[in-house]
Amino acid sequence: MAISSPEQRLWWKQPIHGAELAWIIVVFLWGLFMFFFMIAWHFIGNQNLSTETYRVSPDSYVERVEAFADEFQATDASGNLMEEEGVPVVRPPAGGDAYLVARLWEFWPILELKVGESYRFHISSADWQHGFSLQPVNINLSVHPGYEHVLSLTPTETGVYGIVCNEFCGIGHHSMTGRIRVVE
Amino acid sequence: MATIDSGFATPDTSTYRTCGFTGLRVERQAELLIRVNAVAAVLFLAWGGLLGLSVALTRWPAVQLLPAEWFYLALTGHGANVLLFWILFFEMAVLHFASAIILGSRIATPRFAWLGFIMMVAGAVMTNYTVLRGDSSVMFTSYPPMMASQWFYLGLIIFAVGALVNVMVFFGTLVVAKNEGTYNGSVPLVTFGAITAAIIAVFTLASGAIILIPTWLWSLGLITEIDTLMYKVVWWGMGHASQQINVSAHIAIWYAIAAMCVGAKPLSEKVSRGAFLMYILFLQLASAHHLLAEPGLSSSWKIVNTSYMMYLAVMASMIHGFTVPGAIEAAQRRNGYTRGAFEWLRKAPWGHPAFSGMFMSLVMFGFIGGISGVILGTEQLNVLMHNTIYVPGHFHGTVVAGTTLAFMAMTYFVVPLIFQRDIVWPGLAKLQPYLFGLGAAGISVFMMGAGTLGVPRRQWDISLSEAALGYDFPSAAYLMMGLNGLSAILAALGGLLFILIVVASILAGPRLDRPGAKMRFPLHQGGAEAVAATGSEGSPKLPGTIILVTIFFAAFVLYYFINWKYLSELWLFQ
Fold first, then answer.
1. Is the ipTM of this complex over 0.90?
2. Burial class (CB in 10 A: 0-12, 13-18, 19+), B533
3. Which of A10, A44, B238, B316 has the most CB atoms less than 10 A away?
């Protein structure tokens, strides 16, 4: 029994059960397949997380986001600067850089992106760790202070998307949100 | 201190009794240490479980029991008490059981084992005190730059060192047993599994010390900065590997209960031991699973460290997933249940809480915790559910439905054999594993469902009513969180029942240390003779197990590709 010493002293010379061996082979091949499929997705898939990352001081990152928001803040038909709930709506040039800062407790600013265009999307934190969770798409990334993460992001459908923080960041965590608008 | 220093060289002055049920030689100090560790474990389970219930009821949007501040406090306490204190105290009991009791040996340096126990109690109490004081609601992971009170980190460090002392005593006991020749040949498989758990524990506790000591110094103001990414890499060396201690320990318990309930023996020692060995060899950098959505780590680092080229640790679990039911099937067929593919399973002792708890733990660990764990640990798929409530859904499948249920099942043997008291209220005891198992399964599945719909973990209010820019989660998400709350009530009832039964049995159960006493939930009798009597039992037919693992494999493959399909529908990102 499993709670007594093996009956055969030389237990490592005992034969392996046939069904057991077959299962081991199946499981081993499946494990290999899953390993190679992760690599394959880098070639056949369109969803692979970029690893382009820069060290940055939180203060200088916030300055760059603010400069970006000033430069590209959207205007409506009558030429007024657009904002929602006091947060500027920023319209980065298609194919250009789009900046987002996560901080206690908001994602700033609101980005307005064009569907089908790709952007160099920068994200970092100004203070604690945060979690970027784009809904209802369900893209979830960790956001660190001091690390600027850059990915090429292409929205595939128009609409208004929510960003919800999903890394605990203190008592205001459940009020930390943001927004991305995707237009034609 | 000479007696401690010279260890096994001194004459053996320990006192022993012979167990009337198993014939094992039980040493007094080992028995006492198992008792105190088991009692501490159950007390911390009661406290941590209560906190867990309050967390689940708060996350039920229609109830939202606690205010936000209390919620984050309770969640921090829940994680520390159930994931660390309950599980590690019980594991210390398992280590002493698998060494001193199973090998019939005395315990090495009992004084150090007591010291370790006292340190663990002191650390656990200190951490609980700081959490309750309200200045350390940093979650179990305590990611910097969020800072807890210095006593929070110090409590965890003292607890971890105490656990490490006990692990060292365990290794010492193995040496004592070997030198004093208390067993013949190789150690039993269950002890081998416990050795696996202990070796991983050394790595785990060392990782914990490496990251928590500087973090403690940082909270004292002696270090200016803790790098957030470095913290995660090292912290998860403790956080993930500690779950592998649980896996090794509860799989050792599966084998032990299968042996004790139906007389199961491993199909082949080589395969089961090899699978345990793979845990030691291929888990150590598994912290990568938790870092797949982080910036600054290369894809090749992530791919290699989640899988070690071929998912060898997953393979090890899947091997146990075959050999445990296979060993049960083989034993049951020897016991005479040979008709059809499943008579062995239908006529298994389902009214024995140790068996029912163990078998549900096996099934749910595989189907719920195991499959979802591989999906979460796949480089690209992780983006779909990183930090959503899918993650707690997954690990409640492994740690609650898997480990906790297995430990509860084992307790139905620990109470009669170690406390020598019989289980009271047998009707309720039969029901208890089903109640807890059903609740645990519900918690896991509904949290995973809500996570698939984007619900964040560790978040007080998914209606986002305090947020400037709102977002409406789909109504199905609210339904899932409600069902999660209901499941938590079921699990809490099962947990409460467990604690009442255990405490009442220890204090007032019928005494079993008298001649002729019988256990209500007995050990399997005559298994050993049946094994010896069967000549051709080298390769029994196992049709039932083959069907079960085929269903498991089909579910695994299907769910794996469904998630790739979901991924392919996301926005494009490179």
1. yes
2. exposed
3. B316
